[in-house]
Amino acid sequence: MISHVDPFIGVDGGGNCLPGPYLPNGLVRLSPDTLAPQSTNGYQSHRPIVRFSHTHLSGTGGLGRYGNIGVTPFSGPPRFTLDASERQDEHAACSYYRVTLRPAGIVAELTATARVGVHRYTFPDDGQANLLVDLGAVITPPYAGPQADPNGWEARSTGGTIAWLSPTELSGRGDYSGGWGHDRQYSVHVFIRFDRAPDHRLIADAHGLRQGHAAASGPLLKAVAGYARGSTVEMRVGISFVSIAKARASVDREAGS
Question: Would you call 249 helix, strand, or coil by DSSP?
């Protein structure tokens, strides 16, 4: 019975399983990442949440890998550096995850298809609503650093592109190196469709805000979509290891309505 499935089994104590929603053999493994240092799965039940990212290992050992294409909701003025959030009413079931982020009081709900992460964020009335998209996000294990990891496998953002294609569409590519197992380069392509246009759209690179720009390139790329206080915002995030076009096709095919 699906009602008896407990996604929190094995998330702690070396189990390294994911509490977030994903399908068997699905490319998207959408799950919360907690404050660094992070375990292999990016999550520990006693630590605050920093983002929800779309690529994860589940149930393996090693130092951790992926944790790419992060999304963080937040209230207040637009910014690109955020504090972690404590959790309340965290719940996970088959193909569904929900949590209230404190102290802001933002309710996050997640589900996923094979190649698309589907998000809904409900914001309180006491501050401007924002969504931060982080193309530089990676899992940061407790053993990162050249002395602790002589193989140099710690993950890092090495480049990429990001662009607002329209008032409701954001696309990009994150380039990364490292993670448990090897130090080879890999790229994750992303296409995001918001259910409605934000009131403001921002882009930042490693040097900070790109004032007046709708696109940027380089490592550590981020974007912010801002909405009115009290908003409920949905977003569909297509992921591909091949191209942005394939990520977009996945959104149209698997989560188009």
Answer: helix
- 62 C-beta neighbours (distance < 10 Å), count: 14
257 residues of the chain, pLDDT tens digit each: 677 778 889 898 888 889 999 999 999 999 999 998 888 889 999 999 999 999 998 888 777 789 999 999 999 999 999 999 999 999 999 999 999 999 999 999 999 999 999 999 999 998 899 999 999 999 987 665 555 555 566 788 999 999 999 999 999 999 998 887 777 899 999 999 999 999 999 999 999 999 888 999 999 999 999 999 999 999 999 999 999 999 999 999 999 76
Q: Which helix (H) or strand (E) holds 245?
A: helix 244-255
Q: Check if the beta carbon of residue 239 is closer than 8 Å to that of residue 247.
A: yes
The overall pTM is greater than 0.85: yes
Residues 99 and 90: beta-carbon distance below 8 Å: yes
